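User: Show me a protein chain along with its predicted structure.
Assistant: Here is one chain, sequence first, then structure tokens.
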Amino acid sequence: MTREIVDAPSNLSLQQKVRNFIKSLSHRDGPVRNWRYFPTRVLLRKLQSESAEMRAYAAEGLGGVGDVHAVVPLINALSDNNSTVRRFAISSLGHIRDERAIDVLIPFLQDEEADMRCATVVALGELGLSKDRFSAPPVEIIEALVNSITDIDRAVCSAAIVALGRIGNPQAISPLNALAETTDNEWIRRYISEALHQIEEQNT
């Protein structure tokens, strides 16, 4: 009798632990209902590696997995001392399309490396396509992309034009027309023409 009384709390505690474990497994963010759980955990560990190559691999992979739990670690990776890690982190934040990334990405449009600015433009373009914001993308994204269509690097400029076309916001029409009148680059004019056509289709 005494032994049963002593063991009862211990057994109850074990049962509670088992229930909590099963509950965590079946949670909507747990491994049973969320296939992204395990690959995300593995890649997040690799994102802390001492190897820049491994961190870059992890940053890129997290974008492919697309788990929102990677957003904050990827934002933290934007301060990595390796530019490749930072660039992949930017791209992955665009793939995941979480609005928390918008404000931290925009400053990278001023980066001295054209590749970094281009990755940022593409990422912001993806963020502008978020399902819940498709008809009304954040104003800061449109403004940032419009400012980037005059970037000195043609790849950045082209990527911004393409992004504005995909988003389809009418606010981009006037700046795009203005650029079409001033640019001497035939390819840029072609990108503008296609972007304007896309915007028109999405707003008719």
